Each structure stands twice: as structure tokens, then as C-alpha cells.
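user: can you give me the structure for this one chain? C-alpha cells are fine.
assistant: on it. calling the predictor now.
[tool input]
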Amino acid sequence: MPCGCLPAYYSPAMEAARPLGRRRRARRGTVDRPVNARLIRVASVVVAPALLALLFSVSTTGTLPRRPLEPLFDGSSAAALAAELSIEFPSRVPGTFGAEGATHWYTEMIAGLGLPAEEDVWEADLPELGEVELRNVVTVIPGRSEEAIVLVAHRDNAGVGRELGDNASGTAALIEIARSYALQDIAPAPLPQRTLVLVSTDAGAYGGAGASRFAEESPRAEGALAAIVLDGIGGRGRPRLAVAGNQATSPARALVSTAAARIDEQAGVRPSIPSVLTQLVDLGIPFAAGEQGPFLAHGVAAVTLTTDDPGDPNVPVGDSAAPIAPARLGALGRSTEALVDSIDASVGAAFRTPDTLFLDDRTASGWAVRLALVVATVPFVLGVLDLLVRARRRRLPLLAAMRAIRTRFFVALYAGVLLWFGAVTGVLPTGDALPLPPYSSLVEDWPVVGLGLLAIAFVLGWLLARRRIVPTGPPTVEERLAGYTASLTCLASIAVVVALVRPYALVFVLPSLYAWIWLPLRAQLLPRAGLYLAGLLGPVVGLLILGGELGLGVFDTPLYLAGLVTVGYVPLASVLLALAWIATAAQLAALAFGRYGPYAGGAEPPPPGTIRKAVADFTHVRRRARSRR
């Protein structure tokens, strides 16, 4: 049909019938309507089967039976032992005389019961203390089988006045449980079915270095059936179970349900379990504040028994500032004995460590959760592929937009290099790949001068790099659409890599996918700003949950996370993916708030930048020097 001619079926009556004030809707695939919303809606159907699979995977878990014998744990005796340890050695910081004295005290207590006590001595580079000598004390009570049930409690603390790292109650409970097995020499009793291993670890208040050492090096850990960690069981708050691991793993369902049942029987209250969002965040990072983390990372089913702080329930495992409650200590001590008895009496029980979500008295299978998260990215990826195909068909300037993202990624990478430089210069912590204690000097006493210098260096680098991407004028419609297409394509690539490498981390990415996909359809500033802020909910909520889990402030949590990066606890691959996401988010922010400009004003080919100019000048100077020679 010739340009400017009306179709044969057009009539003025049709135009008159159209309601006033309404204009014709833009056709899909045009510049005004680039995103194919119908394709995204239709593709969303594939999410339904994954959600059904997730719902069908939710089930109850049975508990292991227990023998009719009552536990022998004496809460008053254990409270007296805890008080003695705290009075004689109030400060038990690893590597100090107080920690060494506490080790000798515990060894003498175990030896006095007629049980063996073997010391494992090694040196570790703790993020907060540097190179220190650490000691684990291991007691083995043989059973009929080589399979072991491991009981763990750290005896160190973070010093006087820092009650969160104290565990006098767990150490005392370990001695009291050992006493019940030492009584077999007086009144002979049948040997336990499994071997019982009691481990008094060091540096539990500084990332669980002792538990990591035992899980990695001890041959007893290789044949361990399950591990039970006692940390702060003498508090006056509600009993609690810690289930997070250093990898995306969870303790066996039977272990968690049996531990909850035994605590409910002895303490009269069901223990609390982290919320579903907290479990997802811990699986997505992953992060474990308790000593069960290293065991789970090495395939040993482990759970930590602890209590909430009555003043602040969102604190890591450990004793509270209040005096030890003998009744609570006795109840949890008897619960531990009953739990060990249930595991020991189980026939052919295999405690695996699959990733699982615990929903109070029910559980959801981890494979179903991962499947739902991965499938949830499919509609977004298909919508972006359709957008990319249409953009290439229209010959939009995608190269300039990709170069702008590349520049922003280099700036984010420069920020990562500054973090490494801050670690080398002592501004940020270094050491073994262990979780930092929440009371570390990094968050309690900010290195303001060092952080200020790093911030100045970053600003200077950003000012140098932004000259190539600063807008020289209002971008054209095609340039803006190319910027959106390139950004969303990078975001889809990041989502695919995350789905393949660390599916649980998609909980941080999914809000940005389905908020920012609609940015090209919004012409006004306020809707674009609302969509952009909605896309940031994943990382923001994750940081808030992590800060609440550790009792950190809003501004302390990002600094704490930076410390986890510099000590190597967060893998390098996760750091690079996070930097790529930040670079993409920065370009989408420039687009959403009207500050976008294509690289070098969209010039093709672009003029050489600062680095290329410097390299060319250096090469030219060397050539001139050679010619003179």
C-alpha cells in the first residue's frame, strides 16, 4: 500500500466511533512498546508445574524413637561447673594464657572422670587475632560400631564483657554428659551402639576454627553419623536450633525433627527454627554463624542447640548476659542426652545433608525449591531474547550500550580491587576463610580514616571513567532502547549463570528481573523510579535479614559483608557475579533517572580512552627512544 494512503476498509465513521481522549495502542515490537508482555505472560505458565512440585514436596518428618531410660544429666552440677569456669578463667580469648588455662581445666575435669583426653594443637590465622596457637580436646567413648556421634562445644570466648561468644554452659554440659558415661566403670552398663566423640573446640567465638579443623582433619569426622553442637544452652530465652551451613546444605530432617521433639519433651517448649526467608538467605550466600556450619560443609549432619537472648532474639549463638539458668541448662542437657540415645538406638539410620527448608513441623525438599527458582527465570529470559532479536532487526546501537556496561563493570571491578588493597593495608580483615564474629573491630570500631581514603580513591576512579559515559545531550529513542536492551541482556546472562552455579542466590536476583523488565514501557519518571527501587528489594532484604540474624546495624551489615569477602569466606565467583549485577543495576539506574548516555556519545568506532591513550603514548615513547639509540 503506498505511503500515506488509507486502507480500503477505513471509514471516517470508524474514527468517530473511537472514544475521545484515547489514542491507538502501540504495536508490539515498536519503539514505544518494545517488550512483548504477552510472551512473558504465556511463558509464566511453566512456573506452575514447578510450584506444584514444591507444594507436593512439603511433608512431615518422623522422629526417631527413644529408649525408656531417663537421662542422667544434672543441671545444678553443670551450672556449678559453668560458674567455676567463668570465675577462674573469665577471659578465654584464643592464644592467651586464659585460653590455655581453660584447656588445662577442661582436660583435668575429663581425666578426673577416668576418660582419655587427646589434644590437637595447630596454628591458625584468625581474622581478628592473627596467627595464634589453638587446641582441640577430643575424648572418645568407644561403642560397638565405628560410626560416631559427635558432641561439640567451644570453650573460648571473646573476652570479658562480650557475652555473645561465651559458652561456659556448653563446656559444662559436655563434662556432665561425659560423667554419665564414666559411671559405667562403677555400674557396668551395655556399651553404646555407636562411638561417642566429645570435642571441646577452640576459637568457636572467632568463626568456628576448631570445628573446621576437626571436620577437615580428624578421621573421627569421616565416620561421623551426626554432630550435635552445644552453644549457649544455659540462657533464659527460648530454645533454638541453628541449621545453616557453610555450603548450601542442611542437616538431615530426622535429626532436626528428633532434636525438636526431645527438647519439647524435656523443656516443655518447642524450639524455634530460623524463618524461611532467613534460611533462603543463608542458603543463597551461604552463611553459618554456629559451629554446625563446617560439619554440614563436609557432609556431616549437624545441628546447634542454643537459646535466644531475652533482650534481643536476633543474635548469634552464645550465652546471654544474664546468669545461667540451671533449669534451662538441665532441660537442654537432658534433651541432648535423649537425642544422643535416639540416634544411638536407630537401626541403619543414614543422616544425609540435602538442602532443605524447615517449616516448623514440616519440611520442603531443596530440589523443589531450586527448581521453582530456576524455572521462575524462564519468562524473563524469553522476554529479553525477544527484545534482543527485535533490537538487532531494527539495527539499534547496541555496541555503544554494551561498551557503557563494560565501563561500569570495570568501575565495579576497581571497587573490588580497592577492597583487596584495603585488606593488604590492614583496613579490612584478612585470615582464614571463616565467618567474622559479629563483635569484630571492623563493625564495632570502624576504620574511618582507611575507609575514607578508599572511598576517595573510588570516587577519583569513577570520575575518570565516567567521562566516556556522561551524556553529552538527550539520547535518542533508539539509543535509550539500546541501553535497556543491552542492560536486560546482561541481567539475563547473570541470572542464567546464577541458576547454574548457585540457584538459591536467585532469591536476590528475581525481584530485579521482574521489576526492571518493564522499565522500557514507562515514559514518566515516577513509575520508572518505583520499578527500579522495587528491583533492589532482593539485595536490600537479604542484607537486612543477615544484619538481624547477627544483631548488626543497617550500616554495619555491608561493611561486615565486605569483611567476609576479604577473608575469602565468600567465593570469588560470587563476588564477580555480584559486581556484574551492580554494573548492570548502575546502567539501568542511569536509564531510569534520565542520566544515560551511550559510550563516547555513540561514536563508531569510539575514540581511544584513557587507558588506550596511555598505552599508545608509552609505546610511542619507547619507539622514539629505540630510534634514537
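assistant: here you go. The CA atoms of residues 251 and 301 lie 5 Å apart. The chain has 24 helices and ten strands.
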